[in-house]
Amino acid sequence: MLNPNLLPIFTCTYTLPLGNYLNQRRIMERKEFLKKSLAVCGLSLIPAGIIESCSKQSYGGPTNVNFTVDLSNSANAALAVAGGSLLTNGVIIIHTGGTVYHAFSATCTHAGCTVGYSRGSIICPCHGGTFNPTTGAVTGGPPPSGLTSYAVSQSGSVLTIKS
């Protein structure tokens, strides 16, 4: 058994609550003390991590957007059909039908993840946030606000996307 006077930094005493050991103290060895201390410290960090990951910060999209997309280019073939989408320059472009295209920031406003388009909805893969594909408004999940919308104009086979 260790002498508590020799290792005051690494010893700790506690009272056992029940049984024949009531009010008896025992010396906790350094290894046991460190394991319990680290466990308590680790548990105290979990709530801070959860709170931080769900902060009220809102992520925005790119600013000063001004680029073109040539629909005749095979790299942009996904936009040739209604329901198709293309992710470029931090922007998601969605062809909703006919000559109607919508463009939004591809950055989820909840945690900054890159969104995608599937089954008629803009979806964030990180926490399940969903957005309306024609307005960018939040339709479900944790995002605090809608996606930044960009103006789309078409001239022949060229789309121009601007903030």
Describe the structure.
- The protein is of the alpha+beta class and 163 residues long.
- The protein has one helix and twelve strands.
- It has one helix at 30-53; strands at 13-15, 25-27, 66-70, 85-88, 91-97, 100-105, 116-118, 121-123, 130-131, 138-140, 149-155, 158-162.
- The strands form three sheets. The chain has a six-stranded antiparallel β-sheet with strand order 3-12-11-6-5-4, with no helix packed on it. Strands 7-8-9-10 form a four-stranded antiparallel β-sheet, with no helix packed on it. It has a two-stranded antiparallel sheet with strand order 1-2.
Structure described in brief:
With 163 residues, the protein is an alpha+beta fold. The chain has one helix and twelve strands. It has two domains: 13-53, no CATH class; 66-162, Rieske Iron-sulfur Protein (3-layer Sandwich).
